[in-house]
Design a protein that fits this description.
InterPro entries: PIG-V/Gpi18. Residues 365-375 have a biased composition (Low complexity). Residues 365-394 are annotated as: Disordered. By secondary structure, the protein is mainly alpha-helical. It contains 19 helices and four strands. It has helices spanning 14-35, 44-50, 58-63, 68-76, 80-90, 102-112, 121-152, 159-169, 183-205, 211-231, 240-254, 260-298, 312-319, 334-355, 358-364, 392-418, 424-427, 433-444, 458-478, and strands at 365-367, 383-385, 448-450, 453-455. The strands form two sheets. The protein has a two-stranded antiparallel sheet. It has a two-stranded antiparallel sheet with strand order 3-4. Helix 9 (183-205) runs antiparallel to helix 16 (392-418) and helix 14 (334-355) crosses helix 18.
C-alpha cells in the first residue's frame, strides 16, 4: 500500500483520514455554535437551564452564560433536543413527549449518571446527549465506509467508499448530528443493520462459510434495525429489505420447491423482520400501558386507545402537529418544500438509478480514453463498461443496491406527502445510497441527472450545497431559528 498522505492521498489510510476530517468539520460547527448569539430567538432553553427566576434582569440572565461549556449547552439544546434532555431527566409526563424516542432518552439518562455532576443537574443530561451524538456520528461514518466496501467487495482504500463516508461527515443535517438528537445514533444502527445484511449476502457467495453464521448476520441485521426503529419510527422502512427477500422466496415456498437451506433463510428473514417491527411496537406498548391500561378501567380513555391499531405516534402527529396525507401542502409551506427539494431529488434520483441497475453500471464503468473530454452535444463525460462477463459478485452487488434503495425511496415519498417536509434534510443522513451515488459521480466522472438530463457538474454543485446548507442551517439552529 502507498504511503499515507493526508492531503494528496487520504484514502491510503481511510480510517485515520476520516477521523481527521470528522474532527475538523465538527470544530467548524462548534465554533459556529459558540459564535451564535445566545439565547437566540427563543428563551426556552435558557429557562430550562436557569429556571424561572424572574427577578434576574435580561442582561444578568444572559451574561451568566460566559463559558464555552455554557454557551455550547445553550446553543445545542434547541427544538426537539429540549424534549429529549428534559424527558431524560424527569421521565415522560405529557402525551406528546412519547413522540420522542424512549430508547434515546433512557440512554441519555444512563450515561448522565456516570458524568461528573455540576451545579446544574440538567447539564449532565445535556452533555450525555452531546457525547452520544458525537461518538455515534463518528462510528456511523466508519460503518458507512465499511458498508460500501462490503457491498462492492472493494479494497479498504476504495476512493468511492472514502468519498461517500466524507459526504456523511458533511451531511446537510449539520448540527443535528452533534446536538442531543437521535439522528446520529439512528444512522449508526441503520448503517450497521445494512452492513450486517450485506455481509449476509456476501456470505451466501462463500460456499465454505457455515449456514448458522449467515443466519446470524441476518438476525443481527434485524436487531440493528429494531434499535434504529426505536430511535426514529422511519427505521421501520428498513424492514422493506426483508419484505423484498420474503417476496422472492414465497414462489418457491408456495410451489413446495423450497429446500432446507431456503427454509432456514426464509425463517431467519421473517425473524429479522419481526425484530424490526418490535423496535416500532415496543415503545408504543409502554405508552399504551401508561395512558390506556389503568385509564380504561377508570373510564378516562384517550381517543387513540380505542382505535383498532392504537398508535400514540400517529395520534401525536395528527392531534398535536396536524400532520397527515397532504395536510402540509399549504401555500405558507412552499418555502419549506423549496428547502427540501434538493434532498428529495437526490433521494429519488439515486433510488431509481439503483432500482433500474444504472447505479451499478456507473460503478462498473471506467472513463473511456477516447472520450476523456466532454461531449460536444451533451457536455457529459462518456464512459465505457468494464470488459468481461458479469460475475456472481456483481449480481450480489446489484441485489444489495436495489434493497438499499427501497427504504430511501419510500422515505422521500412519505416525507413529501405526509411529514414536515423540511426534516428530510436531517433524517436523510441515516440512508446510505444517495451518498454512494454522489461519490461515484465525483470519483468516476459519471453524471447526475437533473430533470432527465445528464449534468456532469451536478455532483460538485451538490457538495457545495451540502456544505453551505450545513453551515447556514447550523447558525440558524444555534439561534433557535427555523428550519428545524
Amino acid at each position: 500500500m502507498s504511503a499515507w498522505k493526508p492531503f494528496s492521498q487520504p484514502s491510503n489510510d481511510p480510517i485515520k483520514s476520516l477521523v481527521i476530517i470528522f474532527v475538523l468539520w465538527k470544530f467548524v460547527l462548534v465554533l459556529l455554535a459558540i459564535a451564535s448569539p445566545v439565547p437566540g430567538y427563543d428563551t426556552s432553553t435558557l429557562i430550562l437551564i436557569r429556571g424561572h427566576d424572574l427577578n434576574l434582569s435580561r442582561r444578568t440572565f444572559y451574561s451568566e452564560f460566559h463559558t464555552i461549556r455554557e454557551r455550547l449547552s445553550l446553543s445545542l439544546v434547541r427544538w426537539d433536543a429540549i424534549y429529549f434532555v428534559k424527558t431524560a431527566e424527569r421521565g415522560y409526563v405529557n402525551e406528546q413527549e412519547w413522540a420522542f424516542s424512549w430508547v434515546f432518552t433512557r440512554l441519555i439518562a444512563f450515561f448522565a449518571f456516570y458524568l461528573p455532576s455540576s451545579k446544574n443537574a440538567l447539564e449532565s443530561y445535556i452533555w450525555a446527549g452531546l457525547l452520544i451524538s458525537l461518538v455515534s456520528h463518528l462510528l456511523s461514518v466508519l460503518v458507512l465506509h465499511r458498508l460500501f466496501i462490503t457491498v462492492r467487495k472493494d479494497t479498504p482504500n476504495s476512493k468511492v467508499a472514502f468519498v461517500a463516508a466524507v459526504l456523511h461527515i458533511i451531511s446537510p443535517a449539520g448540527l443535528f448530528l452533534s446536538a442531543p438528537y437521535g439522528e446520529s445514533l439512528f444512522s449508526l444502527f441503520n448503517f450497521s443493520g445494512m452492513l450486517l445484511y450485506a455481509k449476509y449476502q456476501r456470505a451466501q457467495q462463500d460456499r465454505s462459510s457455515r449456514h448458522a453464521l449467515k443466519e446470524c448476520y441476518l438476525v443481527g441485521s434485524g436487531c440493528c434495525f429494531a434499535m434504529a426503529t426505536s430511535l426514529r419510527s422511519n427505521g421501520l422502512l428498513s424492514g422493506l429489505i426483508f419484505a423484498y427477500d420474503v417476496a422472492t422466496l414465497l414462489p418457491s415456498l408456495l410451489g413446495f420447491r423450497l429446500d432446507l437451506i431456503g427454509f432456514r433463510r426464509l425463517l431467519a428473514t421473517v425473524i429479522a423482520g419481526l425484530l424490526t417491527a418490535i423496535g416500532f411496537l415496543g415503545p408504543q406498548w409502554l405508552a399504551y400501558e401508561e395512558f390506556c391500561g389503568v385509564a380504561m378501567s377508570n373510564g378516562h380513555v384517550r381517543p387513540w386507545c380505542t382505535k383498532l391499531f392504537p398508535s400514540i405516534y400517529s395520534w401525536v402527529q395528527v392531534h398535536y402537529w396536524d400532520l397527515g396525507f397532504l395536510r402540509y401542502w399549504t401555500l405558507s409551506n412552499v418555502p419549506l418544500f423549496l428547502i427540501a427539494a434538493p434532498m428529495l431529488w437526490l433521494l429519488v434520483q439515486s433510488s431509481f438509478t439503483a432500482l433500474t441497475d444504472q447505479l451499478q453500471a456507473q460503478i462498473l464503468s471506467t472513463p473511456s480514453p477516447s472520450t476523456s473530454s466532454p461531449s460536444r452535444n451533451s457536455g457529459v463525460r462518456q464512459t465505457t463498461l468494464r470488459p468481461g462477463k458479469e460475475t456472481e459478485s456483481d449480481d450480489i452487488e446489484r441485489g444489495c443496491l436495489r434493497r438499499l434503495a427501497l427504504p430511501q425511496l419510500v422515505l422521500a415519498l412519505t416525507t413529501f406527502t405526509s411529514f414536515h417536509v423540511q426534516i428530510i434534510n436531517r433524517i436523510s443522513s441515516g440512508y446510505p445510497l444517495w451518498y454512494l451515488a454522489i461519490a461515484i459521480s465525483l470519483v468516476k466522472g459519471t453524471p447526475l441527472y437533473v430533470f432527465g438530463k445528464a449534468q456532469s457538474s451536478a455532483s460538485s454543485w451538490v457538495v457545495h450545497w451540502m456544505i453551505s446548507y450545513a453551515i447556514i442551517q447550523g447558525g440558524l439552529f444555534a439561534s433557535f431559528l427555523p428550519p428545524a
